[in-house]
Amino acid sequence: MGRRWIKTGFLRRNLAIPEEVDYALNYSVLRNLLITLGLLFIAGCTPPPKVNRPNLPILADHGVMEGIPGKPGGIFVETEPGEPNTFNWFISEDRTSADYIEIFFMPLVTLNPVTNQFEPVLAKSWEVLPDQKNFIFHLREGLQWSDGAPLTADDVVFSFQAVYDKRYPNRNADDLSDDDKPFIVTKINDTTVQIQTPNIFAPFLTKITDVCIMPKHSLDHFYQDGTLQKQWNRSTAQNNPNSIVVSGAYKIFSYHPGERIVLSPNPYYYKTDTAGVRLPYIDFLINKFVKDQNASVIAFASGLTDAEGISPDDVEWVRRSAKLHDFTIYDRGLSAASNFLWFNQNPGKDKDGKPFVDPIKLKWFQDIRFRQAVSYGIDRQGMVDGVLFGRGAPLWSGESPANVKWFNPNVKKYPYDPEKAKSLLAEAGFHFDGTILRDAGGHPVEIDLFTNKENQIRENMATVFQENMKTLGITIHLKFVDFNALIEKLSESYNYEASLLGLIGGFDPSDGISVYLSKGRLHQWYPNQPKPTTPWEARIDELMIAELRTLDESKRKEYYNEVQEIMSEQCAFIYLITSNSYSGLRNKWQNIQIPKLVYQPLTWNREQIWTP
Q: Which of 88, 137, 209, 373 could potentially form a cystine with 421 if both were Cys, beta carbons 3.0 to 4.6 Å apart?
């Protein structure tokens, strides 16, 4: 049966969608949209359950928000393209899981994305000893978990202990180590901990902001019996949400896999407003899982959800509904995120002795001339114009121009030049037979490229790449799969040839340590190397370690500039484009503070947001 389509005439008439978006939606889009509308209709017409806000005493060391005091109440509705894999910080490696975990579990300190200053969270204060390797953190008196249990220095020590345990491999261990040596974490008393770094460690506070303190009283048993990594999965959230004990502003109220997750206030959250009212204000945060981005954006443009990240290709038509449905689209400038593709250069074998990558193709992928030829064969400006409607820019390294402090504008660039690409391919022994490109052994150059099907922009980039490669005689077979299935390929089975994904960007070079270090779990083209397999990877390792060990920011900048230059020269990641960032928000919400860090959502301070 041929592909069937439905026009959006009904949707336009009944949801006030502008004429400009009377484009075709397939049945999958329509189905997801109607599911979303059904959920929201029920939420709007059925009285929500009463939120339990017990009158608990305020902490002596409670945090106080900045902003206009509001009032409790309201329901905030968003959509998400995917759902979390886990609620367990010790094993989380995907962005969606991390977003929820960062809501549920507080760090000792945080980086305010508006002021770019470090601020106290669970720790009310900290001090740096003269050797600049020892840090003392003083916890707030009376902190409690969402089940009422005390939150103390024991939880801090436990969180680091579990991260460093070799039984539980995780990306955090790399981020919280220096020269393969962990930080030493010592309990001084119930409200004081000391953390010692092996050497002077420039991004120490930045890394501490990423440490989610976990509850020892809930997880220590599983840590001891070896099952820690199996805890707090989606099944737990579905069947026993209260067992996921949190310290953040919200906890899990209910979870329906494939449908939605609902969050409600944590009555023991440490923060209040200036009038002494415990935060958060909002009664329920509802996140509906809608894989199709079209359905998600239409729901927001129709006034049915409260916030949405708007893709550059959707900005114009969504803006036409702003007055009718009382929302604003914020243009936040060029995104800090990067989009890139890479070839699997992992020479290993699976448990049955089968190579992860066909040796013939592995030889192509390991040849810098092949990788550079592919890069020259990509029309990035055409990708910006065609996919982003001109709202973006070509990208040549892992740092976007949005990260002004660390961006290196002098890396090697690959302007669209098919003839240069063909010359490099010929130099590497490839030849064009009049129809397709073949290697020196006569094998046709065909490559499977995987990306996640929940991201329409990414799918469109992959399609443009496929067309660009036809000019070189290279056949690209596109494979659009669920994000979770893709992560399994990239991180566990390594059963793929090429992939297209992105990273959201970071505040500090050290945020990319697990990507750039050859032993890193996110060193995607060949992760977890016992030692660097190439001189250039060894050099990157040296530079990434060097930038950690100096407090001289000019030296750190020099080292990181060279890392970007090597990455661009070697085309380990073939960087593509970055888009402008747009966020939509209903105007009824108060206390909105727009972050300078573009990768932070507008609702980063969701515990302070309220509606009249």
A: 373
